[in-house]
Automatic annotation (TrEMBL):
Single Gene Ontology BP annotation: regulation of DNA-templated transcription
Localization: Cytoplasm
Classification lineage: Bacteria, Pseudomonadati, Pseudomonadota, Gammaproteobacteria, Lysobacterales
Organism: Lysobacter antibioticus
Principal location: cytoplasm
Coiled coil: none
Protein name: Transcriptional regulatory, C terminal family protein
Presence of keyword Transport: no
Amino acid sequence: MNILLVEDDAMLAEAVRAGLIHDGWRVDWVADAPLAKTALVDHDFDAVLLDLGLPGGSGLGVLATLRGRYDATPVLIVTARDKLSERIAGLDAGADDYIVKPFQLDELCARLRAVMRRSQGRVSPVLSCGTVVLDPARRLVTRDGEPVALSGHEFRTLMLLLERQGRVVTREQLEEAVYGSSGTIESNTIAVYVHQLRRKLGEHLIVTVHGYGYRVGAGAA
């Protein structure tokens, strides 16, 4: 899924970005407050990792702008500011969670998955449909209890479809989730991934909604 990382420390940003990509996320990185505000207008993100001390403004200002237009995108504040009053201010400003630097990447990923689950109204840490189960934390997919090997692109495609189970996901939304932009890849690329997922996980897992996109739901594997 698509994450916006707002962090002015290039070395830390690169380390976090690499870790998140390894964990199955797509990550866009910006280093100042104005660029963060622009990115949040121009693109849809599944969550935001937000530093507080930024060039050109504050992280709380970015958060206030986001919430001021009633955008409920999950926000996890990532900062060196560890005073209780600052943590309270961040949460009261609309952040969904708050983690203090330095941190372990595993904890950051776990907190990110948790705020994503809450934003989607889910309790279980895994996604499932029929006998197909996807565990984001372990990057593991099973069918009938047996592991199924997926490429990174296949994994992200399946995760988005399972997260929006019962709803139609358009080709453009899938392109954005897998590649970060639409209209820049071959027109049949998503269809190829869907074909591969059906071959590995069952022909009836993913339903084609002609003229719109794809859906995981009734009649799945």
